[in-house]
Amino acid sequence: MKIGCIQLNVGFGKVEENFARAEEKIREAASLGAEIIVLPEMWNTGYALEKLPELADVDGERTKTFLQGLTKELGVHIVGGSVSTKKGDKFYNTMYTFDNKGKQVGEYSKAHLFRLMDEHLYLEAGDEMNRFALGDIEAAGVICYDIRFPEWLRAHALDGAKVLFVPAQWPTPRIDHWKTLLQARAIENQCFVIAINRIAKKIENFNGQSMIIQPWGEVLWVGAEDEEVAVIDVDFSIVDEVRGRIPVYDDRRPGLYSGVVMK
Ligand SMILES: O=C(O)CCC(=O)C(=O)O
């Protein structure tokens, strides 16, 4: 399966520019043979949190129409990163996923809000899981800071996900955490992790280094430190073989953890 990874250079508050750029890059990835295309976090507005009342996508309608049109036309699955949305009088950081027939298969709002970037002051947290299938690929999606909560990703793996998609805006100063956490999440859940970070060089400090990690922990690909469209071949069939090598799922002792760790 060919994964189109789009490390988008997201303009701060520049919704029109961001939609145009995302479309250009999605078309480029599809023309290079991508079958699943993945975008980064909050690509419509960037972290223009104070401007959300003017800029957030109301009920995600624009994003859903955009993704549905492109998935249908190009015959590709799109894990649509995330966009800022307005639902009722609240704002969210929402990920939409469409399959290659133009059907919406996922909607998820970031469950863990990142206080260091004031997300909790502007956004509401979602409280639903994000499991979906892309054809016969059992997958899930979480957003950026969510990866610091292993129990949340484990819940998705226990629910059957074999691939975890992670759109992000992960800043350069903590890029070592990004790499280590993603690799750990892949190893402990024995699944693929496909994590797409954004680029921003001027005001903000995001320098890509998206990653695809295999279920045994091998790093299959690391993105450049600049805007990039990369198409990477992955073999999802190896997940079952890796899970057979060390039977972590069979060896779990949930009864032991429930009263202690999982409070
Ligand atoms: O956890 C981190 O260090 C970065 C998280 C983040 O930037 C985010 O969730 O937007």
UniProtKB/TrEMBL annotation:
Family under the similarity heading:
Belongs to the carbon-nitrogen hydrolase superfamily. NIT1/NIT2 family.
Pfam families per the record?
CN_hydrolase
Q: Does the keyword Hydrolase apply?
A: yes
Record-level Gene Ontology MF annotations: omega-amidase activity
Protein's UniProt keywords contain Hydrolase: yes
Which keywords annotate this record?
A: Hydrolase
The UniProt record lists the CN hydrolase domain at: 1-236
Task: Report the protein name in the record.
Answer: Omega-amidase
Instruction: State the signal peptide span.
Output: none
**Source species, domain of life:** Bacteria
InterPro entries named among the record's database cross-references: C-N_Hydrolase, C-N_Hydrolase_sf
EC number(s) per entry: 3.5.1.3
